[in-house]
């Protein structure tokens, strides 16, 4: 346990690929000043660095698979510590993606006070990702990889919701509607924390 993160307020943002996690996190940052850490963005930064590890991560992500737990957890922990002196709290976007990740996070960093479950229909996620893929330049925003990511989400990530539901900290947010409508419900969930 790192004592710099001992009392950190932590919100997990969990949802399928293309559900709207990143979009909602940006609006939470603007309104509440939380520190937004996206596991995918951290991984893509490592890929962009051209490092040997980045090359391995890129191959995994292009297949729509999960990267090794220790890799993504260490990256998030490092990024949290780097901001510990200025952070009002952390939005952990895209993690945990399996129950084991949640358990390891709590051993090494701490427990979340809220899990925002950003929920959209499969066909909505597919169409949003195909559209995002037109401009994102992401190697995983293509039909074949999207299908793998969705399958993995239903198999490995949805059990995370049930795991934390048992603690009563899950707030399910319908992400089908317009961005601002979705955000009004995200804000209600966060305001309910105080
Ligand atoms: N409520 C919404 N309505 C329409 N499009 C949305 C909505 N939320 C997100 N999007 C779009 O869908 C795509 C995926 O959103 P993003 O926030 O990147 O999701 P995630 O981080 O969960 O993959 C983006 O192109 C984004 O602009
Ligand atoms: N917690 C995690 N564990 C393992 N792999 C992860 C991960 N978070 C992200 N990745 C890998 C697999 C994901 O398909 C890829 C992109 O993640 P992302 O940017 O969060 O996707 P999206 O925002 O489309 O949901 O990075
Ligand atoms: Mg995202």
Feature tags:
194 residues, alpha/beta, five-stranded parallel beta sheet, 5 strands, 56% helix, binds adenosine-5'-diphosphate, binds 2'-deoxyadenosine-5'-diphosphate, binds magnesium ion
Describe the structure.
- The protein has 194 residues and is an alpha/beta fold.
- The chain has helices at 21-32, 39-48, 52-62, 69-83, 99-108, 122-136, 143-165, 179-191; strands at 10-15, 35-38, 90-93, 114-119, 170-174.
- It has a five-stranded parallel beta sheet, with helices on both faces.
- The model has no long low-confidence stretch (mean pLDDT 96).
- 2'-deoxyadenosine-5'-diphosphate (DAT) binds at residues 17-18, 21-22, 38-40, 43, 61, 64, 66-67, 72, 94-95, 97, 101, 140, 149.
- Pfam families: ADK.
- Residues 38-67 are annotated as: NMPbind.
- AMP binds at residues 39, 44, 65-67, 94-97, 101, 138, 149.
Question: Which SSEs are present, and which pair or pack?
Answer:
Layout: E1 10-15, H1 21-32, E2 35-38, H2 39-48, H3 52-62, H4 69-83, E3 90-93, H5 99-108, E4 114-119, H6 122-136, H7 143-165, E5 170-174, H8 179-191
Parallel strand pairs: 1-3, 1-4, 2-3, 4-5
Main location: cytoplasm
Binding site for ATP: 18-23, 132, 177
GO molecular function, one term: AMP kinase activity
């Amino acid at each position: 346990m790192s004592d710099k993160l001992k009392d950190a307020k932590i919100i997990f943002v969990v949802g399928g690929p293309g559900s709207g996690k990143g979009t909602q996190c940006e609006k939470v940052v603007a309104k509440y000043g939380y520190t937004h850490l996206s596991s995918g963005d951290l991984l893509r930064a490592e890929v962009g660095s051209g490092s040997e590890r980045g090359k391995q991560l890129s191959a995994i992500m292009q297949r729509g698979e999960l990267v090794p737990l220790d890799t993504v957890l260490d990256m998030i922990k490092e990024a949290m510590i780097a901001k510990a002196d200025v952070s009002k709290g952390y939005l952990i976007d895209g993690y945990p993606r399996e129950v084991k990740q949640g358990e390891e996070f709590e051993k090494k960093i701490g427990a979340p006070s809220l899990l925002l479950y950003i929920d959209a229909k499969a066909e909505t996620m597919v169409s949003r990702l195909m559209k995002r893929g037109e401009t994102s330049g992401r190697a995983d925003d293509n039909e074949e990889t999207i299908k793998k990511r969705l399958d993995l989400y239903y198999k490995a990530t949805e059990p995370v919701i049930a795991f934390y539901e048992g603690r009563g900290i899950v707030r399910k947010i319908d992400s089908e509607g317009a961005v601002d409508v979705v955000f009004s419900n995200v804000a209600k969930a966060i305001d309910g924390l105080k």
